[in-house]
Every structure is written in structure tokens, then in C-alpha cells.
Amino acid sequence: MLKRTLQELMPPGELSGLLGRLQAFPKTMPDLSIVEVDAPLPDPDYLEPHWFFTPLRPSGTVVTGWYDYPERGLSDYGFGRVLGEVEMNGRKCYELVGAGSPSDEPETYRLFYWSILPEEVYLAAIYRSEEDRLRFPTDADWTWSELPPSWPRHPGRANLLRRIADEEFVDEEKRSLAPVGVYDVTIGGKTQRCLRVIDPPDRGALAEAYVNADGRTVLWRRYNGAPEWSGSRVRGPHQTPGAVERLRELGNHRLVYNGLEFYHWYDCVTDVALGEKAVGDGG
Fold first, then answer.
1. DSSP secondary structure string, 26-39?
2. Residue 65 and residue 274: Cα distance in Å, rounded?
3. Helix-strand-coil split of the chain, %, nearest 5
4. In a designed cystine with 120, which of 148, 152, 179, 243 is the match (CB 3.0 to 4.6 A)?
5. What pLDDT score was predicted for residue 51?
């Protein structure tokens, strides 16, 4: 695969529009309220790849900001956009570009190839611009950061319920938490009813996903529970092997998973949460 620039990948004028949206993202986390409600569980079609938040449909787009706690300052941002359909190893895939982080070099980006199947969605290949190399799940050097190849992302709520059926979650008041529930999430004055799912931890990190009735991620909360792993978004004095202890000292919110403590690390907020129209997404 020949190396291309973002300007070559994106339709004319769209890249500048997306970068402008990134610059306009709030520098401080907007006011946030999360309230559990007694309502039927939503069952949206899951059209977003796990952790990427970009809807898998033609021209699907997302703009995203990350906020560290308890400071609530904007620490990172990025965007994702579906470029179109391609064939990869005989499979039809969506080609998705992800870029925009201020910590990256100006022309650093990744291309993700997600299978297009009615019954499942999984990552079929990834391309890193800094390596100029296409990777496949069958490669010996396929890493966790590129997602496990054995974990397809099935549409619908049932798969999420099956994954977490035997897990136990407890809040800091020692109340048992249902891993799946219905919550009203208000960010910056805009309220959306969401399906909340707690993902079991991967490599010491646990996440809560709040997904609206359209299957779009509104809020994604990350917790760190691995003392030896600081993670890339634990900044400054946090970026030490004692990162979890530092999060505890800061008074960050705690969750307990199967007896292990996890502390709130950062929030990922999408333009869907802020009520903004996703560029090129039609809404």
C-alpha cells in the first residue's frame, strides 16, 4: 500500500472542517449528570466499532474529545470517518480513517478495515501511516492495541449481555451495580436516554459505555486498575508505575470488579453527546 496524506484520503474541504471541529471542542468537560431510570432497556443496532465510535455506514463520522479527571481538562481529541467500501482478502469491508490527536505528528493516521456482515462486525486489517504497512489478525505481530482478532463486534444488546453475565460490579458505596442498565445522560444541558454497559477489563482497564437509542456512543468512561500500567492518558505526575494510587489520591470515582479496585481515569465524549451534527454523517 502506498503512503497517502490525509488530504488525499479525505474529500475536498472535509478535512479542514473536521480539524476545525476538533479545535472548537470544549477545553473543559461540560457539566455532566448520569441518572439511572426505571425504563425498558434500549436495543439499538450496534453500528460503531468498539472504542472507535464511528458509525459503520457510508460517510459515517465522529469527532471526539478526551477529558482527564478530576481536572476535567481536554487532554486529547480525534476524529474518525468511513471513507468507503473496499475488498480485503475476499471480504467486503468499510475503510475507516482515524486521526486528529494533538499528540500525533501532523500526517499520522490509521486506516481500519471492518468487515461488512449482517451478523457480526470485526476488525479485518489495520494500516499505520508511520509504518506504511498493512497488518492482518493472522500476522504474528498483531497486538492487543489493534484489538483481539477473536472478538467480533456483534450488533444488538444480546451479545453484550452474554459477555458480562457472570461479572460483579460494586460502586464506592458498596452497592451492587447491574452491568447493563438505563440512564439519562446530560452533558452540557443536552439529555439523552442511554443503554449503559460496563465492559470487563482488558489489560487492567475497565470501561462504561453509554449508547443512545440510535446506537451512537454518547459517553465512554475509562477506569484504570493495573498498578504497573500508567496508560498514555495519565499525564504529568500521574505517568508513573503508581498511576492507580495517584488516581486514588486524587479522589477519583471508584468501581470494584470481581473484588478488584478500578479508579476513574478519563471520559471520552463524542459530538453526538454535545448535540452537534456529525460532519458528513447526515445527523
1. -SBPPPEEEEE---
2. 11
3. 10, 40, 50
4. 152
5. 67
DSSP state of 15: H
Contacts of residue 80, Cβ cutoff 8 Å, sequence gap at least 6: 52, 53, 54, 60, 61, 62, 64, 96, 97, 98
Q: Say whether 21 sits in a helix, a strand or coil.
A: helix
H-state helical runs in 95-212: 157-163
pTM, two decimal places: 0.83
- pLDDT by 10-residue block (mean), the chain, 283 residues: 78 81 86 93 71 84 90 88 90 88 69 78 84 86 58 48 67 84 92 86 78 88 72 44 77 87 90 63 38
Residues 6+ apart with CB under 8 A from 180: 41, 157, 160, 161, 164, 195, 196, 197, 198
Q: How many residues does the chain have?
A: 283
Q: Which stretch of DSSP H or E encloses residue 244?
A: helix 243-249
pLDDT of residue 267: 92
Q: How many CB atoms are located within 10 Å of the residue 15 CB?
A: 20
CB 272 within 8 A of CB 278: yes
